[in-house]
Amino acid sequence: MPLDPPRPAETRAAAPAAQRRSVEAPPTAPRPEAPRKPQRERSEGYYDTKSQVFSALIDTIDLSQLAKLDQESAREEIRDIVNDIIAIKNFAMSIAEQEELLEDICNDVLGYGPLEPLLARDDIADIMVNGSKNVYIEVNGKVEQTGVRFRDNQQLLNICQRIVSQVGRRVDESSPICDARLPDGSRVNVIAPPLAIDGAALTIRKFKKDKLTLDQLVKFGAISPEGAEVLKIIGRVRCNVIISGGTGSGKTTLLNCLTNYVDREERVITCEDSAELQLQQPHVVRLETRPPNLEGEGEVTMRDLVKNCLRMRPERIIVGEVRGPEVFDLLQAMNTGHDGSMGTIHSNSPRECLNRIESMIAMGGYTLPQKTVREIIVGSIDVIIQAARLRDGSRRITHVTEVIGMEGDVIITQDLILYNIKGEDQNGRLLGQHVSTGVGRPGFWDRARYYGEEQRLANALEAMERQAE
Ligand SMILES: Nc1ncnc2c1ncn2[C@@H]1O[C@H](COP(=O)(O)OP(=O)(O)OP(=O)(O)O)[C@@H](O)[C@H]1O
Ligand SMILES: [Mg+2]
Questions:
Q1: Which residue puts its alpha carbon closest to atom 3 of ligand 1?
Q2: pLDDT of 146-163, one tens digit each?
Q3: 341 CB contacts (<8 Å, ≥6 apart)?
Q4: pTM of the shown model
Q5: Atom number, ligand 1, closest to the C-alpha of residue 222
Q6: Distance between CA atoms of 60 and 81, rounded to whole angstroms?
Q7: Average pLDDT in the 246-261 region?
Q8: Which residue ranges have their beta carbon within 6 Å of ligand 1?
Q9: Contact at 8 Å (CB) between 238 and 247?
Q10: Which atom of ligand 1 is nearest to the CA of 248?
Q11: Exposure check for the chain: N or C terminus, fewer CB within 10 A?
Q12: Between 370-380 and 326-334, two packed helices, what is the crossing angle to 10 degrees?
């Protein structure tokens, strides 16, 4: 059986944690796209040769010794031995093929194996591995299959194991589901056999160091320039905001953008399952939940964090993703003087978002009358921003909706901005436009006036109106 050695401890796991936690530099111009290496389909022969060389290598080297070397020396060591093996076994290969094989083998022994080239690319949003032979990536909003393959399911599982062991977790038959992250901050989920029937399923949300800014979102057409202006005002004047959207629709990105408009003097506390937000302000406390350890102890939930936040004299609380009963604590915070708090919720429309909040409150075991729950919601949330990934792969803000009050038992909302789809071009790209619904005085008008932003708000809304004409 081909062995997959444990990865030397010092090669990757140790250093980056500190780097990840350092405050990032302010956003700069978008980085040029990383050159894309073509993902060549490899023949069965290639995998066969690689497997033979790999086995011979494992027989030859002492892995525990290799672990003591730094990455460069380890690579050198492997390079020498692999060249010898190829010469001795008389494999017919071109220099280029030999280089490729060497690179592959080093990646297997020292890093994330066949995933390395994908992890190195900046243009990929997600990597989805379904067993050893099917690896998909999301690029520019589109999911595509790659030629990347693992030798077998065992190699894939070993790499999964290597990833999760960095955060002190384990994935195997007895604990087949695991969340983890890479040293660079990328979010990882693994579900292993027997739960995953065709080999381990590994999903990676790549961490983007250079987070998108609102101006970039405008450039991509996710929102119109005037719409972006309204969002900036919403962020600045301390509206309580929920960002709603489906998986990978751009919720976290949008939340991060909005936090850019928080004043530098404000004390902000963020609560996340896996730190993704990058606030630029100096006065920020970042908190992260903790899963239970292998013995099932020590879990700290989002709810624990949000509750604790309230004792930390926050001015704003930002919750990365609201999934459960912590919603109640967030709403409480929103209507007890922590204006400008924000969070994201997984839902497909502003209306659905409100329903989800109601059911999340029920999950917490509160037995409040429905009307009371709705009154709390209305009293807390000012604006819902809906993000969506449309069928052409583009990500757009489809609604900016205000929560304005109650009529009887029903929550009344009012759309400020909508994205209207008008058709599609010959390449299948959707054509559409962000339009104002004609509301001249949104519910947060007084708030805008209080912060001296009423003129700016009026101008942005008027400009949108004019465009619609
Ligand atoms: N408007 C946009 N245009 C292009 N790419 C975008 C846009 N918004 C977000 N992205 C990219 O899409 C990916 C997913 O974004 P993000 O993490 O914000 O989504 P999410 O809704 O928070 O996902 P999840 O539900 O998994 O938490 C990221 O790689 C991000 O850079
Ligand atoms: Mg997210």
A1: 395
A2: 999 998 898 898 889 878
A3: 240, 241, 316, 317, 318, 319, 330, 333, 334
A4: 0.78
A5: 1
A6: 8
A7: 95
A8: 125, 205, 208, 212, 217, 220, 222, 245, 247-253, 395
A9: no
A10: 23
A11: C
A12: 50
